[in-house]
Amino acid sequence: MNDKQNFARDKFESVVTKVRAMASKPEVVVATNMVPNLSPDPDFVASYATYADQEGRDYVAGWVRTWARYNGVSLIDINRTFNIVRDGRDILNTYFEEVPEVTFGSASEWIAAEDERCRDFTLRATIATAAWTSGTPFYASLSDENNNVVFMRNNGGFLEFAFYRGGTSSLYQTLLSTIPTPSSNAEVEIAVRGEFFTFRIIPATSGAEAGAQPFTARVIRYGGLFRPRLSYFSAPGTGPVLAVTLGVGKEQQFVPRILDRDMWGIPDDTADTRAVTGGNGINHPTSEGANLIYGMHFAAQRYDLRAVASEVTTTANGYTQKFDDGVLICQLTVPVNVASTGSQAFAYGDTFIEKPALNVSHLVTNPHTALYLNNIKALTTNTTQAVVSLIAAGTSVNPAADTEKLFIVARGRWK
Question: Which of 22, 114, 160, 369 could bond 155 through an S-S bridge, CB–CB 3.0 to 4.6 Å?
Answer without folding.
Answer: 160
